[in-house]
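Quick check before the chapter quiz. The format below is the same one you will see on the exam, so make sure you can read both the input and the output lines.
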Amino acid sequence: QVQLVESGGGMVQAGGSLRLSCTASGSRFSINTMGWYRQAPGKQRELVASSTSYGNIRYADFVKGRFTISRDSAKNTVYLQMNSLKPEDTAVYFCNADAVLLDTARLFEYWGQGTQVTVSS
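Here is the expected output.
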């Protein structure tokens, strides 16, 4: 099993910045893709950004130029630097990871518990 623990959420005024972190822990696993999703009240969960183990990065159009995803593979940690935040960025942000459990050679998907980001106008 793999556990994802997020940190860094909070409340900020429009135009401000926040940095989210997510660290994966467990035993005998290898992470492929790590990323961030978000879910606002009454809306579906949506991809924000993702990073593969090969270095491919994907951003949702609504965060391009404002958010930056980075990854420390040695620490099994992914970061999301969020700049120029807008009220519409308010949501619960979830860390997501695809990981192979080495004992089974199978790929599983994992989610963090979510961290609230609130942007006030």
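If your answer matched, good. The chain is about 0% helix and 60% strand.
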